[in-house]
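Quick one:
INPUT:
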């Protein structure tokens, strides 16, 4: 059930290109601001009562992934603005209770037999039945990770009368997931796609994802661009001054995250600066951890890599590093990059959709080509050689988070969708 999804020049050309993502995001936020300036109500229903939302997380929840983390953070931001939120999720881990409270939110888990095909169909049936039985308790359902529960909500829409917003969380839906064009005619995926056609809105968080949704047959009206949000209220902390330069990564340890490229790039950087105290700090866990640790030993950098494992306090992690690297091969709109930028850390990331929605090269961060360890080392060397560049890009990244991605703007855009009938 849980989702499974030659050296380049140091300068990446952006000439003649206006950031499409910046235009789309600015347009959406501008529209939301204009609408809200004409509507004095806060985040409530039209009758002035508190909005009541059901968040469905189609994965293990609580979980380590960005989609799960973003769902919880969004729920907290909405609660702070007077919105009532409850969670429902499949019982992926049989050790988890069917009901519990997490961060003050009610969490209901749908049990199912972990049998291929049969388990998926039972999750869909039971979630659809849950929506119909509890429709009067909620004003809308927001689904995080578009899969079984999104399709079930679409099929139940006519009877539940609940507006359905489903979020495309990242690369998973298109790489082996329900929107992968190579799997669209598999029986279960075909059934899921039929259900998805019945949802009210598909939330896309990146320009690349929007284009893929259009190619998958969704209408312009269904597709709503609302990015991930982030808390911008706390001022950034300056890193501790010491002789060690700390380079960080935070996320799952999977091949698609490109941490093996980060290790190679760090080894190259160590060769460029043999006399500097450089440390690589990796926060996270996953299926490739053992292989990555072996790789670090083979590269001779194992004593310079600090493996933190899974962490809860990500903000303290970002405050402890000097530079942040996102070496992914595919992304949605990465929370890790957003958190690094909001804590005003200089970011180096791969030039892919999701990362380049956030980073304008040489303006709010630096980009390198996918899989290019030499290019990654070159970009990090630029920060080392020009600390003023690192500071300027980090400041611009923080300003971008405040301007476009603060939770206040994001929640107001989403509430406009929740209110749609």
């Amino acid at each position: 059930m849980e989702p499974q999804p030659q050296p380049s020049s140091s300068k990446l050309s952006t000439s003649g290109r206006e950031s499409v993502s910046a235009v789309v995001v600015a347009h959406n936020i501008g529209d939301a601001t204009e609408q809200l300036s004409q509507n004095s109500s806060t985040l409530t229903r039209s009758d002035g009562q508190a909005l009541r939302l059901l968040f469905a997380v189609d994965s293990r929840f609580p979980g380590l992934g960005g989609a799960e983390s973003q769902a919880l953070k969004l729920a907290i931001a909405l609660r702070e603005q007077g919105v009532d939120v409850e969670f429902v999720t499949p019982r992926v881990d049989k050790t988890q209770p069917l009901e519990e409270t997490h961060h003050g939110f009610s969490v209901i888990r749908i049990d199912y037999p972990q049998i291929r095909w049969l388990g998926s169909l039972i999750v869909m049936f039971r979630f659809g039945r849950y929506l119909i039985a509890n429709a009067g308790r909620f004003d809308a359902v927001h689904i995080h990770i578009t899969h079984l529960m999104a399709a079930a909500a679409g099929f139940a829409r006519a009877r539940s009368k609940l507006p359905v917003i489903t979020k495309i969380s990242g690369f998973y839906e298109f790489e082996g997931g329900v929107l992968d064009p190579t799997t669209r005619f598999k029986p279960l995926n075909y059934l899921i796609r039929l259900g998805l056609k019945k949802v009210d809105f598909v939330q896309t968080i990146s320009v690349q994802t929007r284009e893929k949704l259009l190619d998958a047959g969704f209408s312009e009206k269904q597709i709503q661009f609302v990015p991930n949000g982030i808390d911008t209220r706390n001022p950034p902390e300056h890193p501790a001054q010491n002789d060690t330069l700390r380079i960080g990564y935070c996320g799952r340890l999977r091949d698609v995250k490109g941490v093996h490229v980060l290790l190679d790039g760090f080894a190259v950087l160590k060769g460029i600066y043999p006399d500097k105290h450089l440390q690589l700090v990796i926060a996270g866990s996953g299926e490739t951890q053992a292989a990555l640790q072996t790789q670090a030993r083979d590269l001779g950098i194992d004593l310079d890599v600090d493996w933190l494992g899974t962490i809860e306090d990500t903000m303290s992690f970002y405050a402890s590093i000097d530079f942040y690297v996102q070496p992914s091969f595919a992304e949605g709109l990465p929370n890790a990059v957003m958190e690094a930028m909001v804590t005003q850390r200089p970011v180096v990331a791969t030039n892919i959709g999701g990362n380049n929605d956030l980073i304008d090269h040489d303006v709010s961060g630096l980009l390198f080509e996918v899989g290019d360890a030499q290019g990654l080392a070159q970009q990090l060397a630029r920060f080392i050689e020009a600390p003023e560049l690192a500071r300027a890009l980090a400041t611009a990244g923080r300003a971008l988070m405040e301007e476009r991605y603060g939770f206040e703007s994001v929640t107001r855009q989403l509430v406009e969708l929740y209110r749609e009938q």
